[in-house]
Amino acid sequence: MQDSGESFGLFQTAGPRSGRKRSKAAKRPKCSGVGTTGGFLTHRFEPKCLPASMVKSVERERDFSESLSWLCKYYGFEEAESPVGWPASVTFHLRRLRDLLGKGFRIDVQEREGRAASLVVDHRVLDGMTLYYVPLYPVWSFYEDGETAMYELMVSCYAYLYHVAGISWYTESGYLCYQYEAMKDYFGDELEYARQSGPEDAYDRPEHTEEDELESDEIMNLEMDLLATEMAINNGGAFHKILSEEKHLKSFGQRLEAFTPVTAEQQKLKEVVTEIYQLWQDFPERSAHDSIVDQQWLEMDEEEQENYEQELMTTDCWLSFIWDDDHVMEMIEENLNHDVQANSSGEQEPRSLIVFDRPDAVPSHDLSFDVKFYPLLNRLTRILYALNV
């Protein structure tokens, strides 16, 4: 969500005083020599108006103080007195608030409509460095190894993550779907070229050279990469059809209750899946996309939106099901890193803004779901790979 507020520099020097000329008709009164002494020292000179820059500074100090009070009340912080005066006190308060808010929070002072200074808190759940890729291969291996109860439990869990939480499916659409298809074409083209360039039966000839061996190894590696990519695409499509059956989501609670762990790793799996199931019960309609609203995109026309999306790291780039964390996925991640460095529009991510421009300020989004959801995905992925060693 993009903020429309405009940041400003608080440390400004006052403008020149606007002088006032004495009327030529006015005459200096003569001193009578009588009356109280020290009148000049006790008289208060009240200017008829303050310079505009000084008025603005007074407004900013007042509005900042009010905004600071509202923010401290909202988060339950004690208000602290700055050891330095305005405007240097702003730096003191911002540093203190950053320490109190902690990781994931950003704070700024902005000039907004009707107020000269308002504190704005930007809460972001993600660190911008983690890819939330949920693997299918470990679950598929449960089926192949005859671990039926564990397999069915994970199918129900994945049905929730796909249908309710909204995690992208890598063979359906989106960034990873394109990447898998691109990898398939790439390995196919390279394999065809390698076969045309060197004989496949190099090892069968008694006079084969070291160069023949290298060419044969290259062909064999390309064949394995192409096979792995095709397997990822085909099995992903088959698994997607399985998840389309409503019974898996409906049976989530029953399968969770019936599953009896045998090993310590299986116990860890049941614990994290239990927390995911409870998250669904607490937030039955919440999706990972609910807190991702790009206000800047909403304000664009159709052509601007198309250009903007081409440079934007959308949710499906970093939140998706994948087949496995294998060599093919390593190459896809390299492409992603290149695209991230090349993009200029930023990243879609769950975030919430609170603008403290009134006593009853409210956040733009409720992140109580998101702060639990993404750590659970990390734990689930680590446990699945541990079980599949």
What does this structure look like?
The two termini are 41 Å apart. The longest helix is centred in the middle third of the chain and has 34 residues, at 210-243. The protein has helices at 39-42, 52-75, 89-101, 137-144, 148-163, 175-197, 210-243, 246-250, 252-258, 264-282, 295-298, 302-310, 315-318, 327-342, 370-387; strands at residues 6-7, 105-112, 115-124, 132-135, 319-322, 351-356. Helices cover 52% and strands 9% of the residues. Among the domains are: 51-124, no CATH class; 132-176 and 236-349 and 366-387, no CATH class. By secondary structure, the protein is an alpha+beta fold. It contains 15 helices and six strands. Mean pLDDT is 81; it is low at 1-51. The protein has a four-stranded antiparallel sheet. The protein has a two-stranded parallel ribbon with strand order 4-5.
Q: Which tags fit this structure?
A:
389 residues, alpha+beta, two-stranded parallel ribbon
